Amino acid sequence: MLQVEELKVEVGNKTILKNVNMEIPDGETHILFGPNGSGKTSLMMTIMGFSGYNIIHGKITFKGEDITYMPIYERARLGIGVSFQRPPTINGLKTRSIVEICSGGRPVDVEELSKQLKFSDFLDRDVNNNFSGGEIKRSELLQLTAQQPDLILLDEPESGVDLESIVLIGDTINSLLQRGIKCPREKPHKKIVQERTKSALVITHTGHILDYITADKGQVLYGGVLCCSRNAREILNWIREYGYEECVRCTI
Amino acid sequence: MHNIDNNDLEVNLDNYQNETEEHEYIDELSRIDSSDADKLLDVGVDTRETDRAGTFIQKDKSVIHCKTRFDGVEVMGISQAAKKHAWLTDYMWKNISPDTDKFTAQAKEKPHEGYFIRSLPGVKIKHPIQACLYIARNNFAQNVHNVVIAEEGSELHIITGCATAPHLISGLHVGVSEFYVKKGAKLIFTMIHEWGEKIKVRPRTVINVDEGGLIVSNYISLKPVGSLQMYPTTYLNGKGAVGRFNSILVAGTGSVLDVGSKIVLNAPDSRAEIISRAITTGGTIIARGNLIGKVAGIKAHLECKGLIINDGLMHAIPELQGYVPNVEMSHEAAVGKIDQHEIEYLMARGLDEDEAISTIVRGFLNVDIEGLPENLKNKLDNIISETQKDMM
Q1: Is B1 a member of any domain?
Q2: Interface TM-score (ipTM) > 0.90
Q3: Which of A124, B114, B146, B203 is the most core-located residue (most Cβ within 10 A)?
Q4: Residue B331 sits in the same domain as residue B216
């Protein structure tokens, strides 16, 4: 699905990502750990193609296509979707309208989708205007549900979310990624997993989201390189016990 | 870079003629000249009069159509109203003096009609009255005097469209307007301007609101105009009177818009709000707003946002004047370009750059306009889309 090779990225003449290599196969969800300022969000923004993230070296391939210098909207249309941590407010643009935009012309039942996310009351408000942390997440996931991307980049889906909404958010992510266990039971689990195509890269600082979603792998970004790639829970246990200091020991 | 050139706003009255031929009265709106009808439609006048409580149309100096379809509301030319109501003199030149400036003086000296619209006490009119002031004669100075009275406890909604004939090169519109919102009355006044590229427009408006009265004024000017200068003043004179002013302005190359509202809060519990959204794509916009709090316990807010696309000048002048303690007044002004983050956010949802920009611009101009009929809302949406095409 996604392949990142020898990626070096500068933001304002400062090297943020030194040499990142990463592969997310079809149907897999990867967790990206890392301390504040390690470049997690920068990696996500670079994969999506945002301005200000200058690729000095390396290559990004998505579905076999070189997307390193592709405009953002073409990446979106090719099947990459992002949930932002701090999305901008767009005055006068109703949440309902942006959900319709996300559907890209496919028929979409905005009312029904928003009901599932308990977001119906927000449809006629300007997108992101005075939304709380949890409301932003639900708004972002509502948009992604309409967009149905094949690769989803989620930036700290648990941050600023109250305990009640986090279950809802976890469920929504799982169903977006075809990982929900509330799906029809006529198919055996094995078949569901085999048919799974949606992939994700989930950024987390605290790892709490792992209590609500399942993942195939964890990666640690530290000092601009991916320094660790193994079972996500195992990484989380180590970080919880020893902090990111342990990653320093590993990189030496 | 743009500079404000006072010459752009200068008008030499000698360049215009105050005399022109009379136009024939039209009994049926369907008989109106088709090119005129198209222009009327653009400024919100529905020639089929669906969902309209009355119509007033003035072409140059002649009232060419005027009728009411609803008891309890009067719609007529101002000269006819003066004949019918001797008391009209109490309402004319009451709040604005003819010697305010050369334009008001001209309106007094060389008057060309104008409309008189009045809702009788307690009468609530569901559908809007439509009024149109139209200039067809080149070089004509159209000097009108309008009076609107919403009597006690009544509700009145007016849509005014001002336009010029498509071929018109030069013209001047001077409009003196005096509005009276009596105790407990409600007036929603929506004005859509579509003047020509070289037309000079000088409205002079004063509004009086009594106790518990409400004035909502919406002003929309999206098409090119030579120069427009207006600064309507509203006096909230009664306890609990409310004034809300929205304006949506677009200035392309060659257009100069000096537009603002002034609201004087003279009574306790009165409230005022001024919201303006302005976009320049090469023209000049001076967006003014002045809130004056004279007594304790008033609330007033001013919001003035401007976007500069490509080129142009945006001069926001928000003013607050509090004369006593215990006034609550605030303002918010911002001038800038479209935020790159907003563009890229929408691109990440699949819109290309042009689509993203036009979505943001449309949102920017999308002030919730109170009391606008659905068909006019759609119309406005179309005008905004077209305007965008011209901008890009």
Answers
A1: no
A2: yes
A3: B114
A4: yes
